Amino acid sequence: MAQAYPQFQERNVELVAISVDDRTYAFQMADLVGAEYPVLADATQYVTKSYGVYNLLNDNVAAPATFIIRSDGGIAWRHIAEDITDRPTSPDILAEIDRLIK
Question: Residue 96 and residue 31: Cα distance in Å, rounded?
Fold first, then answer.
């Protein structure tokens, strides 16, 4: 995602990552992957539980999930992983954004 971030910005779309780790670890991971986009810490799992993705894989963390949120706060598209490797690629997400923009 870090490498594709400029392509999201070209579409006037903000990319945000949410981690169930505490702030320190979440920011360390952001530095490790070179994230220029916001990385938010959800150490209490409030957000991930609200979106229904916490502990889906019985591992006490949030399942990998991608949401496209409309400007009104509604969910326009989502992908919730069935395992740790099930993640859409940046080109897949960008294609979905392009479809929604049209």
Answer: 27
**Is the torsion defined by CA of 10, 90, 75, 98 positive or negative?**
positive
Residue bearing tokens 């598209």:
77
Specify the pairing of strand 65-69 against strand 75-80: antiparallel
pLDDT truncated to tens, each residue of the chain (102 aa)?
889 999 999 999 999 999 999 999 999 989 998 899 999 999 999 999 999 999 998 998 999 999 999 999 999 999 999 988 999 999 999 999 999 998
State which H helix or E strand residue 46 sits in: helix 46-50
Angle at 54 between CA 27 and CA 88, to 5 degrees: 75
CA separation for the pair 11, 17 (Å, rounded) = 18
